[in-house]
Design brief:
Rossmann fold, alpha/beta, Elongation Factor Tu (Ef-tu), domain 3
Length: about 400
Amino acid sequence: MRWVGRTGHFQKWIIAPLTIFALEKAYSVLKRYSSNSGRTYLLSVSIEQSNVISLTIHRPKNFIFAPGDYILINVPCIALYEFHPFTISTAPEEQNYLRVHIQAKGNWTQLLYKYFKDMSDKFGDNASVKIYRADLNAIKANVEERIEAIASTEDSTGVFSINTTTSSQSESSKQSSKTVIVINGPYSSCARYIFDCKHVVLIGSGIGITPYASILFSLMARFRTLRTVCKDCQGVTYHGKHRLENHHLQKVDFIWVTNDIKSWEWFLNLLHQFEVEQDEYLASNRDERRFLDIHLYFTGIKEDDNIGQVFLHHVINLCSEELDGDILTGLKSRTHFGRPDWNILFESLISNDSTSTEKDTDVFFCGQNSIGRDIRSCCMKYGMHYYEEKFQF
């Protein structure tokens, strides 16, 4: 035991790793609380239906992320040292703000929801942060319209951006009253690699759609970079050989399973914008095929042989045909009732897309575990790659 008591060698070998560790921690703390990367503030809050709250956060100058990334959020007025992970709902192309959608199911999220709800009830329009009550007016539960209401402009890509051109004097006078937010990240998830796939099937249930909001926003922004509007006739044309010519991704099937469609007006608006954008693109490029197909499943109404349900389905279908759109969502894509038959659905996805096979198809899911187990089994059966993102509250 000649090494006993020889602490000099231990100190020599441990000092370098400890120094690196301390420097890394110091850098992390400085970056986290720097106004250029981590320390920021709330622009607005929206209280949605179904106990969902969305936070619109000023995007720090040096904050760079990819579609599908998530961040750790600290709200000091709720809990001084607690950080919680949430997926970014906006696209990287949005230069001035970030948005996250949070469902109040855990202790911290319930405190957050109650804090801003009570603030709105008590102070109304005089609250320190702008609070929109979509839970009281579902018709106007549109995030882009609410952002525009607090002074927004539409950039050249057609994506709404917060107007930050106010004078420095007025900005500094308001700074003291803004709700501080500290963000850490971004951190990547499996959804980041969607653009490396050829045929992607995105499946979300409930709040599990939020990881795909950022991806769909980003895809739509890339469409719009090819768009040119004629100054004289206001006609829209698209230039470029292909909408995503620098990416491997060729086809997206988006599947949404929900029991409360009207609680997600902000997401329906996104899907509607994408449908319009895609139709305009296809009208201008007739040789191209559809890039995004939307499959909506509403579990609030079951698909069965009950005479009342059959009559309701018949009325909805007739109204949808008359309006040339879905009566429940306003989308051109029709809403199906009940949970999907995954075997039939997966077979149709492959048979309807002649350019991809099972090996070319990657399935991404975020939502309830029970649905995830069924989807995983189908992916194993058909030889598709399966990726699942766990969401927390």
